[in-house]
Amino acid sequence: MKAVVLAAGKGEGLRPYTEKEQKEAITILGKAVISHVLYGLKKAGIEEVVIVTNEHEKQIQDAINVDIPFETVRQKRPGITGAVLDGMDKIPDDEFLLAFGDIIAEPEFYMNLMNSYITGNSKAVFSLVPVSEGMQTYGLAKIVDNRIEIVNEGSTLALAGAYIIPKGDFTDILEYFKKISPFSRYFIWSGKWIDIGYPEDIINAIEVLLSDLNNSIISDKAEISKTAVIGKKVIIEDNAIVDDYSVVKGPAYIGKNAYIGNYSLIRDYSSIESEAKIGAYCEVAHSLVEPRAEIGSKSYLTYTIVGREAKIGASVITVSYPANPVRGRERKLGALISPNEEIYHGQIIGPNYRK
Q1: pTM listed for this prediction
Q2: Residues 158 and 232 in one domain
Q3: CB–CB of 190/208 below 8 Å?
Q4: Which residue range is the domain that position 148 belongs to?
Q5: Per-residue pLDDT for 339 more than 80?
Q6: Any residues with CB less than 8 A from the CB of 152 and at least 6 apart, and which?
Q7: Average pLDDT of 320-338?
Q8: Which of 49, 141, 255, 332 has the most C-beta neighbours closer than 10 Å?
Q9: Could you give the percent of the chain with pLDDT greater than 90?
Q10: How do 147-151 and 140-144 pair as beta strands?
Q11: Domain count within the chain
Q12: Torsions phi, psi of 79, nearest 5?
């Protein structure tokens, strides 16, 4: 079976960040969001993938590090429905797997979807997941007499972003879902699942991915000072440098060729991506620092996302409380700094700041 993966959305909940970087290309723990999807599809037995993209097509192509045959198709028709139709045109089979490229879930999520299709007698299978925050941001469904019914409200079951559906002639994908759902199978996923739509989803994804870590994984090629302190549940990749008297208190991730300066503290579900540089005397917690970003000395980042190649000056402080995240359970959210942006020295940045 072939799959269509959607990666052409505007990423409204992450603007202005997504004006410069497609959200499916955002790197978390050394892997782009879309690569988490493709890895799951490969484990589920998908043989080939059609990825629907927009003007950020090359970002998606460069971000993929999963060994699975794929081709990219530039979206021509508008909306999600148009993206599905543009991808479906490349599918020769009667049924195909439709996946959203901004979902982070375990491979078993996609394997369960495929198993439900193989073991049943229906041409369509829907994945559902319980949600408790930001219900208005999801497509919803409910189960009535053991059948799935697509609804607009009144349910805590969300459409989970992966489906097997028959090819059809439709002008609205949600209406098509409503049409075929009474005759479809479904399964309710109770494992790890994050829909990357808002800054808090990225922060949550780091926590979810690192929560499975039982022991530290430290590359023999990493350069760690004898005076540095490395805690439990820490990943340190090849050629990363952890300099004198710095502390990495897990759970945390330090990517390839990243640099952690003297006396800095990296803690509590932070992901410092490849070639990022953290200056001396910094503290970073609950944050993502994307590849090649630079954080100036004596800066404090919490619940913050720093885009690739962005530059944060010295002595910059982010304040994360009180904030109003759309999906977050905690009222904490720091700054969203877009790729290639610059924050000048000495600034104190309030909650929900975006640049």
Answers
A1: 0.94
A2: no
A3: no
A4: 2-197
A5: yes
A6: 140
A7: 86
A8: 49
A9: 87
A10: antiparallel
A11: 2
A12: 75, 180
